[in-house]
Amino acid sequence: MQSIPKRRALLFALLPALLVGTLHGGWQMNLWFNERPDVFAVQNSWQFLIAGEWVQADPASLRDNFVRGAVYMVPMVLIACIVAGMVELFQATRQQRAIDAGFVTTALLYVLLLPLSLPLEWVAVGMLVGAMAGAFLTQSSGRPMLHPAAVGAVFLLFAAPDRVTGDTVWTPVDGVSGTTALGLVRQGGLDTLTAAGFSWWDCFVGKTQGAMGDVSSLALLGGVLILLAARVFSWRYVVGSVLGLVLISLVLKVFANANDPLVALPWYWQIALGGWTFAVFYLVADPLVVQFPARLEWFYGGLASMLLLLGRVFNPAYPDGALFAVLLLGLISGLLGSVVYSPAAGARTCVGSFLSGSRSCRS
Predict the structure, then answer these.
(1) What is the CATH number of the domain that holds 58?
(2) Is residue 147 part of a domain?
(3) Is the residue at 42 inside a domain?
(4) What percent of the chain has pLDDT over 70?
(5) Which are the contacts of 85, defined by CB distance < 8 A and separation ≥ 6?
(6) What is this structure's pTM?
(7) Which of 191, 188, 183, 196 is nearest to 261 (CA)?
(8) Contact 347, 303 (CB under 8 A)
């Protein structure tokens, strides 16, 4: 399992995304309430009623935005943590070991993949499926074979697609709808996105619709600095990820359908659409799942970026096919960890020696 410092670093790195996701959700709701008083009058959810006891619907107020978003976000986080904690308690009891508090970060990652409007019962079901998959589908090292948060989110794509996809799920306000930045690009490229009033900076800081964890690349990159400082991954992984993104973007422009809006999208726009940032630096590099030699970070980062972008471009059936790439990369990281380099055996294979720059098949 991952070390305590890395676990704590991941937890702290998620805080900017959690804060911005909460503020963003409340801001989106307050914008609608100000523009459509008729919509405000017909809301009757328990979260809406609780928020109404504490705040007004002023989108210019940080307090109003935060409280209104928090009454939706906090219950989702609590439910996910309780379910993941119960599964971890069961596993710890069965294996006669101490409880691994890593389930908290897994629950937070899972919640950040969801729309704020998702009913709590579906939050619990998805987390249960993901946590069970993480508990019982394991590598030889004991790490999960597939990322539990990604498994839970993918399960919801199949079990309740109307709850996690579409234009009506991103803001928990009855009677309104809004398309994500990625959805606007799919409809007509950058022209459609800019016609809707969104610039690159708007997408980068988080003014568009989307899941709670991927609306703001700025907040996510702030967390990346924490992960770098804690050595969860090194600069090699970051450089490899960006180079992989640039390379596959250029390759797609040459060999793929140039009329596809996502193929034509410049690589720096891919970064502004926060799904790539969240997937490559938080899900794919999560120390709960990932195990590979430090010298392979550049290779794994580049491979992750390529597969994530390919999943986004060539899987139009789902809003962001990157989730399926995350699951595939979990399997690849397990292969790299057990075949390319085996810490238990203390030796590299010849393939591992070649990829990691060693001149010998021995350690």
Answers:
(1) 1.10.3430
(2) yes
(3) yes
(4) 87
(5) 99, 103, 104, 107
(6) 0.87
(7) 188
(8) no
